[in-house]
Give the backbone structure.
Amino acid sequence: MIEIVETGPFNTVQDLGRPGYRDIGVSASGAMDPFAVRIGNILVGNEEGAAGIEVQTFPFSLRFDRRTVFAVTGADGDPILDALELLPWCAYTAEAGQVLQLKHPPTLARAYVCIGGGLDVPSVMGSRSTSLRGSFGGNAGRPLVKGDRIALGKSADIAPVPASGLAVIEPAVALRDVFPDLVDGTLPVRALPGGEHALFPDDGDAFWSQTWKISSRSDRTGYRLSGEPIKPTASIEMRSHGIVPGVIQVPPGGEPIVQMSDANTAGGYPKIAGVIECDLWRLGQARIGSRIRFVRSTHAEARAVEQAVARYVEDVRTTSEMVKRALRAMA
Amino acid sequence: MIATLNNHMPLREIVPAAQGRARVSSIGARSFLLEAPGEFDLAAQRRIWALSQTVRGWPDIAEIVPGMTNLLAIFTEAPEDPDTVVARLLEAWGNARSIDLAGKTIEVPVHYGGEHAVDLPALCDLARLSDREVVRIHHEATYRVFALGSAPGFGYLHGLDPRIYMPRKTVPSLKMAKGCVTIGGMQTGVAMLTGPNGWNSIGFAELQMFDPTSPMPAMMAPGDTVRFVPARIEL
């Protein structure tokens, strides 16, 4: 069991989502930074898709009621176990009764708490993610509140983790060559032109060249961007069609919306572009008020990024298994 | 990249109707949307159903999402060469023969009028019909589920009588109740979630049409026939 000791609104149980049901109108949901969930789970010895907690409002604390391995990934900032400052992207062992606290991260948006065994909430339609819109999944289909108690699954390896922790070089650092850094405080987000790109004048220049701000009307469903409105040369009515996270739609007001993890399954606004899947985690870590810029990409580049991510994940898995085997041998 | 995509199709004709060729565009690197040319009708949708069956079986497909005379194909990974994917989809579309899905018939009891029918007076004005006529026209028609989407279990229904078409609202109702029987343009449906909704409500249905814990969570499926049965008319 863990018990939620303090939490802001909209912190939820998430895993890698429930894809496969968009054809009956069910959003995939899942972590806004799935990369952090995968790595966190590997560190604590879980399957990549085990459920953890997505913390997007701080401070947040929980109490462990049994000895367990855990890791905090995603956002920057140091988690605190009782009075001890720890590192993010690092697995530790917590003793029964200890309290883990997460303070507001310095720059990023979302932290993930992954715990050995995963959160044992019921799997609904193949996932433990909270569907806020449908009010199902996760912890009773709703955000966490103070006093919530959540069971933990059986940990496959109540893993020997070194007392000093088992750390990984976080993706943003390890994959620096693959994920370009901020430029003057602006996050570059790679995207491909979408179905109605040609409706926007000058090859979409007004969209690609300006810096957009993530407005306060942004959440897990989508980011509304503020900036100089962009207008298509003709207004059209599209028939409803399937959409996925990353699609950049331009509603009549001209300020784009990027659909995120809780994306609707269908849409009809003109699509100027679509964020490449491998950059979605970075967007998921971009905070309200921060600035982004879209960079025109290609399928080939997106594929190269996917492969680099897969290699990194595989590397983390192999190394962490090796370390744990060695520790077990020494024990 | 998109310039090469254009070699395969008339991407510049934006309105997905008109001429004879389907249009394929991408969303991100893994998803491709094929839009059928021509009218918004059952014939086009039957070919989309056929295309769905074909594409669903491809080994590199993660998920498909049939829409209204279109199909979103989500692949497991980004292709090296999108032109190949576009060509495969267009070829599959070319080979897609109209099929009819053997759907079930769902009868939905409706309380027409009353407190939830907030847009019925405006529809009567628009259609220049009495509320009694609007209700009769709505429940006498037979509808087909074209596709599901937008909300869990929500079925887009085709078959609305053109006399009671009503455009979506430019300013949505902020809190329309789950169960409202609505008209959006040339489509009708039953609201599945309480919340903002741009469609026009003319009645209310109690029937539960989505249960996430069931092995078949959605009651409706593409191809089903839907009839609205007046349980009560309160005008």
